[in-house]
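=== RUN LOG ===
request id: a7f3
mode: sequence -> structure
chains: 1
length: 79
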Amino acid sequence: MHNTEKDLSSLQAERQRLLGKRQVLLKAFDAAAESTNKPHRLSRLFLRIRQTNEFLKSLERIEVDTGRARVQEAVTVMP
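=== RESULT ===
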């Protein structure tokens, strides 16, 4: 497997992990929102959801850049 393909595969695995984590956080946020006496927990969960979303956006940017590098590499190799 080519390095770029391994990189993309690793990025996709990390994306899946983060999507699962975000789902768990969203469920916890929903449960905390139903309990009106846990504003601190809501704040912490909101922050963690935002951080997870930012990580997902970063992965997307890396995937785009890696995909561009792969295309560039393919063009360079072609006669």
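=== NOTES ===
The two ends are 22 Å apart (CA to CA).
The chain has one domain: 3-77.
=== END ===
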